[in-house]
């Protein structure tokens, strides 16, 4: 049977990491995969997470299964973090999932189960794994314009025009904050226009929020998702704890479905638990437990928020430094967008050839579409990147 298997193309983001590791040059700079790094290049365990882990080791007395939908303490705490009080809790059904990717996958599976003909509208560009999972599930994808490569900002007119094509029962996938890969985000007026259009068409919004706290702050980054929840009859939310809790390998995420009322919420909840059972049975618990411990303990939570805020401000400072350096070197404001973008990523607007030159001539690794991970920089490497970009003709 295995002889019938065909080679699968490597995931571009993960393959870049491999190429970086194999590069012997000491000056190499990794701006690839979306993993936070300190200026020293370390991905730390956050203080509050470490403290919770220590407590957990002391108090955990069993490794028996939790609930099929995940530990309610985790799902409740995450609903609070993401949705606040935007909707009544009994309208929200939840499952803990292996990472944000698990939540995305389960959301698509739910949609396919309900409406096998549903089309999923995705931003052009989007996180490549969205496309890969949809293709794997055999679901139809429709792109909507999102990024204006001339200005490196959102092409909102193009986006609205393309979303005019949605039909009742279609799904529109949106990034809640810190758009991956561009770093360009909608403002609240634009979110309101999107909501109005989706409601008029009867399409279902699905928000992927993997970087809450990395953009404008924990509350600010949740504004859009809360607005959609409060103003659309139904929605899906895939949230990740990988980045904002720094627990990447623990695979901790959550899928939330907001229903119109508690009765539909209950049925949806049963279906989500069913999907967990079919795909992997019980979701992983260790990371989820750490998250609920951090979120429900006032001291741990305050320390986590403080550390997350330092991470966010550090990335903002790097953005400003890079934009400033490029302004000085290019004598123009054309890189000002880097300081306007939010989150871990910016798409620089370099051509694939320029990206290649940056890798070959300067050992600077970024995704082929010129997405950089801001956290891969530090104050010393920012000027190196800026000079290299000018040298490569960006
Ligand atoms: C990224 O976009 O780099 C991250 O979400 C990591 C991944 O799994 O691709």
UniProtKB/TrEMBL annotation:
Pfam (any one): Aminotran_1_2
Domain called Aminotransferase class I/classII large: residue spans: 27-388
Enzyme class: transferase
Superkingdom of this protein's organism: Bacteria
A GO-annotated cellular component: cytosol
E.C. code: 2.6.1.57
InterPro entries with a match to the protein in the record: Aminotransferase_I/II_large, Asp_trans, PyrdxlP-dep_Trfase, PyrdxlP-dep_Trfase_major, PyrdxlP-dep_Trfase_small
Keyword DNA damage in annotation: no
GO biological process, one term: L-phenylalanine biosynthetic process from chorismate via phenylpyruvate
Nucleus among keywords: no
Co-factor(s): pyridoxal 5'-phosphate
Ranges annotated as spanning the membrane: none
One example GO MF annotation: L-aspartate:2-oxoglutarate aminotransferase activity
Key words, A-Z: Aminotransferase, Pyridoxal phosphate, Transferase
Family recorded in the similarity comment: Belongs to the class-I pyridoxal-phosphate-dependent aminotransferase family.
Complex and partners: Homodimer.
Protein name: Aromatic-amino-acid aminotransferase
Organism of origin: Roseovarius tolerans
